[in-house]
Amino acid sequence: MRKFITLALADLKNVSRDSFLILIYCIPVFIALLFRFATPVIADFVVLWVDLTEHYAFIVSFLAFLTPSFVGMVMGFMLLDERDEDILSYMAVTPLTKSGYMLYRIVSPVIISFIMMYVILFIAHLTPIPVIRLIPVGLMASMEAPMLALFLAAFANNKVEGLAVYKLTSMIFLAPFVGYFVKSNWAFLAGILPPFWVSKAFLASFEPFTGYWLFVTIGFVIHGIFIYLMLGLFNRRIS
Amino acid sequence: MIEIKNLKYTYPGNSEETIHGIDFRIEKGEIFGFLGPSGAGKSTTQKIIIGILKQYAGLVQVFGKELRDQKNDYYEKIGVEFEFPNLYTKLTALENLKFFASLYSGETEDPLKLLELVGLADDADTRVAGYSKGMKMRLNFVRALLNKPELIFLDEPTAGLDPVNAKNIKNIILEKKAEGKTIFLSTHNMTVADEVCDRVAFIVDGQIRLIDSPRELKIRNGKKNVRVEFRENGSTETCEFEMKNIGSNMEFIELIKSKEIETIHTQEATLEDIFIQATGRSLK
Fold it and tell me: Residue B183 above 80 pLDDT?
């Protein structure tokens, strides 16, 4: 535990000395503020054609997986730096060991995303937040952060490529649209992509809907599989 | 301290072995030089002993215990310097050392004292990104001493250093030996090996060709001659004499009495010569 705190403090220092990383951490806050102040204005504007307030929960659900994606980007860039600096080789010969270090690199973005997601949801303030019921969804959604971080660090050669890879990964955020708007069972094909289950479970958390735990469980499994695969890709890249 | 028997290693995905059954033993308090050209298997062997490459065949005992059975506390007792500095460049030198020190449960050195040791105390609060290559190398070296390790692995510790700093590093290595530490030093720099190592092993193509003390090797493989350079008629002349009974060699005595002598050298072989003789390879 003491070692994890040390690592977290070093991370904090590393992030605070990189204005680019600070900026990325600020983006979800800007988006939340935009949601908070712009959404009602847009809703008023389009009220003749569509009642946006009916879709507020879906709009807010985006924050649940956008937040971990930005945390994932920061962590991905840090992993890229550490890969370039070959820090991992050194970690492997300390009592922390490489697996202890990778565990930290997977768990820490989950914790940061989880806390940050609640803050962001409260800033956006479009719907009442079912705080307790949202905990499992929040944890599941937060698993996207290490997943994206590992993906980015496995495929990008540098930060510029990292941005391109991140853009590519944002394709997975189309899955919730499919889940929300396509009413056929075929929509579940999009369930191969993790954000699909975040959105489904998030929306289900607002109502006494029987599918909630099913969505949460499948979501955890899918995210777990993806993290495992990404870890394999990352390990292959660094060895 | 270290005992290696019939160690073999094949990298995953490769069909050919990289290490072909090597044997050696390192005693406590010894500086053991592992010499060979790039790609000979130096780093692979070191990576096996520090536990990074796990799928080896053969016996690797460190601190009297097979490596596979070592727990994480193994890393409390060893210090490793990698060939290329792997440091947090956004953190200062002091922050780097403090951070890495906190990963150990045991007693650690005072980071500032370590920085002083390698002449970096004045730059303790400079971010590593602003360090020159040599400064990074020195910080990288001194980090291997952070956890007061009993066994220290050094990979090209003087590479990229100016002569003054290289000498300082060599002195620190000798001080650590005097403290009873065991040092495993990989290098292709024969001068460093000659100056600090108690014994050296020559490794080529994943095989050890020779293990002995540098002094023994140089004497055994050299010519038992003395070469004298002297001035005569405005130019430098050379004469060689057998060392056997040199005290009664009148020609030699006459020469050093009558001529303006410039140099007198025994003709023991250099480590580099012996390496080439033993392996048929150059070190570059």
Answer: yes
